Amino acid sequence: MAKKDEKKDLLENPEVIAETLEGAEHWIEQNPKTFYGIIGALVLVVGGYFGFQYYIDTQETQAQREMYQAVHYFEADSLNLALNGDGNNLGFEQIIEDYSMTKAANLANFYAGAICLKQGKFQLAIYYLEDFSADDLLVQPRAYSLIGDAYMELKEYSNAAEYYDKACNHEPNKFYTPTYLMKAALAYEKLEDKEKAIKAYQRIIDEYWDSSEYQNARKYKARLESNS
């Protein structure tokens, strides 16, 4: 109760407030360097935060502007121009380097990885795609699947299966998950892990019976079971 009454006095009694302020003023008079040092530090922290935020926003705007032509080249299948630029416009690689802290650079990692995969640069594709991250329904599992594809090309089937599993389990949906499950099953077949391959096929049969992969899943599952 004593502490509660003390807080009440502090909030409601003008004399208590005045005494508190006088004590604070006295401390400031006795410790001016410390006081102004604290104020200066606070100003620097607040100013630094807003300055950094302004810098990031400016970088984001510039990076998005630079991305436009690179994406256009990607969609036109001009992969070298998309990746390396055309001399006037930056490519994805330079955007990643120059604007590393932006969302645009993050997305550029996805595009660069997809391009390197198409060009047969599998390790480089993995490097870029592992630097990409997103929380959305479609693009992040797609990135995992592309990493799996790169590992399959490198015949590193265990790593491929790991990333296909990530693709399968990231926000599962009827549009793409069956495809990722088929890829995972193939990777497990390459590893001669029939149990996990059958499990992947069975998941398609049970959960995605209306998908185009359904019939093949049934056929491949039956083949594996008949060879057991």
List keywords for this structure.
228 residues; mainly alpha; Serine Threonine Protein Phosphatase 5, Tetratricopeptide repeat
Describe, in short, the structure shown:
The protein is mainly alpha-helical and 228 residues long.
Low-confidence stretches: 48-52
Report the count of strand segments.
Answer: 0
Alpha carbon gap, first and last residue: 77 Å
Share in helix: over 70%
Rg over alpha carbons = 29 Å
Envelope shape:
extended
Major sheet details:
none
Structural class: mainly alpha
Would you mind describing this structure in some detail?
The protein is mainly alpha-helical and 228 residues long. It has a domain of 95 residues: Serine Threonine Protein Phosphatase 5, Tetratricopeptide repeat. Helices cover 79% and strands 0% of the residues. It has twelve helices and no strands. α1 packs across α2, α9 runs antiparallel to α10 and α11 packs antiparallel against α12. It is extended. 34% of the residues are buried.
